[in-house]
Each structure stands twice: as C-alpha cells, then as structure tokens.
Amino acid sequence: MYTDSTKLVKYFDITRVGKSRDLETLEPVFRASVENLIGKMADKHGQVMKPFVTYRSPMQQYVEWASSRSPLVIFNQAKKISDAGSTSVANMMAITEIPRTSGVWKSDALPFRSLHQYGLAVDLYHEITPGVAVWVGKAYDNLMIEAERLGLMSGGRFTKRDGVHVQSSQFDPAKRNTLGGFEFSWTEIEYLIQLSAKRLADSKPV
Q: Could you tell me the CATH number of the domain that includes residue 149?
C-alpha cells in the first residue's frame, strides 16, 4: 500500500508536459494489473481495450480542469491553493495559458490530485476495429466488473460516472478524496514539488 508519498516522486515529474498512452509510464505493480485486465477483457469477453491516457502531467491536468471554468473561478482557486501552502501550484495556474472550451467539462481533479499524475490510473477505450473506438456500451460494464475482480477501482463507481477510468486501490484510504484521487495537503504537494526539483537537479551532470 502506498503510504509514503515521497516514494511517488519519480512519477511526480514536473518537467513533463502533456499526456501519454504508454503503459510503461505506469507504476510497475499497477501496470501488471492493467495488462492482466486487458487480457481478461479480450479472453473472456472478446473485447479489445486500448489505453487512451496513462500518465497525465500536472500541467495537463490543470488545463483540463480549467478549460471549462471562468477566469474568476481559476483565480479564486489559485489563491486558495497558495494560502493553503503551495505557491508552486498557484504560480503554475497563473502562468499557464488555457485554451477556452467553455462549458466542455473534462475533469474535476485539480493538478497533483489525480492518480494519473502518479502512474496509478489509466483510461481505457473499446476498440471494435483497428483505429475505431466506441466510448459507450457493454464493454465498460464488463471493464468495471473485471477491474474490481482484480482488486482495482473503477471510475464506473464514481458519483460522476467515468466508465473508461481504472485506478489502483493500493494507497492509504486516509489520502483518498471524493474524486477517487489522492487528498494530499497542498503543503505536502509543495514539499513533493521541491523534492522532485531537487532530485532532478542532483541528477544533472555538473
């Protein structure tokens, strides 16, 4: 079980931008479970599931959270985060340009509060023929059932249902928030950002 947040710093890469579909970006134990899940979906149900998102960078998470929110809501949230102990996250929110897609919801999870940032979540889609994805249907009911049989958490159980989403259940329940992600305090997140930056600096050749 993930109880020591500092062990997650290697997945806490503040230098990466964007998102990935590569299963190699997942935490190794969770990746093995996802590969097992994909295999069971194919063998038992004849349904091909492909990764749509594995790792999503904190900046990309912020863009997806902010894209359907007004500048005033963003400003107020950044101030709350700064007051709560993370000037780094507040500054990132202040300097990142957001493509406006008003009204198009993408995520309720703030940056650093989605398991996609820690290699512990994946979004899978049903591919009916090569290159053709289907986003609704029985496959996602089967995905939820098979994920839970493997001890994983399914977004199909979230209050705002997210049937494509599967995540690890192996972390401290005290750190779990209502969105299913980590509820690190902003002070702890600031510490992890600084620790990540230090490790990155120490790894660079002199």
A: 3.30.1380.10
